[in-house]
Amino acid sequence: MHILRDIKYCLFAIFNWIGHNIHNMYGIVNVFDIMWLRPLPGGLLKEDHPFATGINPEDGEVIWYKNIAYQSKRKREFKHSDEEIVAKIMTYLARMVETSSSSHFYPRGRKNRMPPAVNYIHGTVHYNGVSLIFDDFQDALEHFTDPVFYKDFFKMIMKEKREPTIIFRDKDYDPEEFAIFSCFMKTRFPFFGNPNGNKKRLHWGTPSPWPAFNLIAGWWIEPTKKLRDVKNHSLVLRAPFVQGVYLQRSDYGKLGRSSYMFPEKLWSRFTYFRIKLRGDRGGMYFTDKRKIDKGFLYDPSNLITLKERIYEKIMGEI
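Request: output the structure for the sequence above.
Response:
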């Protein structure tokens, strides 16, 4: 039975790789739109907007704990509770939004390494999204290769239309394994995803106070674009995730595998090779790492235009 499962996985990995690239291009086009074609300016949101605080205006409580969709059984002891880990990660994302939000002293938001458009996206992830928590990559691998869990998880994100954040309790992880796990997820689903963590930057990932993999399903696009109109600022907020409906079985992971296979290992090596070819630009796609490393910050009151960026590209300026 496991042999058939693995053969099926390898076959579907090809189709998911194709779907991943198509879906990723769609995401890139939308980021290009809100960043360059019709850039979202800083200061669209107020500093007390739920995207910047995580606080649900309906009850005045932080929404993150209610948006935990699944917690695997702990197989060992960890210093921090799941709620503490979720709070650390989501607070980090909320502060990114808060940086580009309007305040008394900074009506257009503060200067930042990321443009306002990119920071706004994180509001849809931490506030509207859901969290799934596992001990480590091995634990998550066993779950996501379990056909029952896979089916229930996929049903949840497609029906609920929420961005999932896959969180790991173990902070002392192996970066190379995280890179391989990241590619495994992209062979399992036709979506892009980033490995974000508290150690060295991996692939296209970014820093995070805890290791977390963001599977980017695309549900961020509509609410982020709606931020252009102040009338939509309350409409983009989702109610807390409904508990007791999805991922209710207690035996998830039993039908999964515990080791990595060649598709994800090959993809990880290819990704490192691709990033190496980019030279000093590294694994930062929408912003120029060379400029960031020199201290460049986006000024929300005077954002660089597409014309200026094209000129930089042509003239080879950094």
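Residues 107 and 174 are 42 Å apart (CA to CA).
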